[in-house]
């Protein structure tokens, strides 16, 4: 049985060698896995830090967006208030100007009526004057006729007197 022992020793030595080799491979594998675990742990920590930074930024952006939204609403409401105030002011101004326009239209109508009345009075006065002129021209023509007749009568009387005087004068000589 001795030969069996020699082969068994070789087998044990070979098994020990295989076990040592397996052990060394296992140790290398464990070291590799530990390094991989450490790398993944570091990566996970970096990822968590990045996530935390990202969340902080998102939170800050969210706050900034909310602040901007509130500012926008404030500005919008202020602009709307100013717009309504300006619109009210302009409507009052329009109403005031429309009132002034109505007053001025009324004054213009009154003035136009007064001008028309004065023009009618002027036309009536002209007609009256023209009638007076015609009447006076008729009176003048009548007086001219009477004067011409009186002058003729006077001249006729003078001619008669001169003729009588001439005849008397001739009779005397």
From TrEMBL:
Phylogenetic placement of the source organism: Eukaryota, Viridiplantae, Chlorophyta, core chlorophytes, Chlorodendrophyceae
Domain of life: Eukaryota
Record bears the keyword Cytoplasm: yes
Major localization listed first in the record, in broad terms: cytoplasm
Sections of the chain in a coiled coil: 80-168
Protein name, UniProt field: Dynein regulatory complex protein 12
Protein's cellular compartments: Cytoplasm, Cytoskeleton, Flagellum axoneme
Database matches in PANTHER family: COILED-COIL DOMAIN-CONTAINING PROTEIN 153
UniProt entry keywords in alphabetical sequence: Cell projection, Cilium, Coiled coil, Cytoplasm, Cytoskeleton, Flagellum
Role: Component of the nexin-dynein regulatory complex (N-DRC), a key regulator of ciliary/flagellar motility which maintains the alignment and integrity of the distal axoneme and regulates microtubule sliding in motile axonemes.
